[in-house]
Fold:
Amino acid sequence: MIILDPADYLAIGLSLKIALTAVLLSLPFAFAVAYLSTFVSFRGKLLMEAVVNLPLTLPPVVVGYLLLLLLGSKGWLSPLLEHLGVRIVFTWRGAVIACAVVGFPLMVRSMRIAMEAIDLRLIQASRTLGATWHDTILSVILPLSRRGIIAGSSLMFARGLGEFGATVIVAGNIPGVTRTIPMAIYDYAASPGGEPLAAALCAVSVAISVAVLILHERLGRKGRG
Structure:
């Protein structure tokens, strides 16, 4: 039996923390983008959709490097971050942002599919009965989109657990600070005799992902019911 050391358990906990924080941080923005893409027509809509889906086509390392150019010590936003006293690069916050950016298109797409399936007559009926646009969102669109929200959150959480390329560029691989499960697996796989520990962490990652997918399916079935 392979026994993981405290640093490995710390990496597992950090991975869960980063993935969950990325999901919670992205939820309102993803819902807003999905709403605009589905129900609102405006100039630049195609460009917005292209930018949102860009992380799906770019290598994660490229996404990480672009984030480094944006958030680094000499990045485009460095004066603002220094003024606020916030440090992003090589912290767990940087890992959260990397996971959020990479998984954001998956969440938006799931929500958008759910919104496109909503009967527009229900929205028109709510407006006819005097509901404001935010009342319609809260009472009609949000409840009917819950399956897409759950699906998108599950996909983004699982994607965040396995994120490596963008995270290693923005947050690095600092034990106890930014070392997540994929980082630890990489370290063990590259070290002599580390294959058993790498396999053990792979098994932990698979178990967490399976649990997330089972929870997603159960919630989806309850939603259909």
About this structure: Residues 10 and 176 are 6 Å apart (CA to CA).
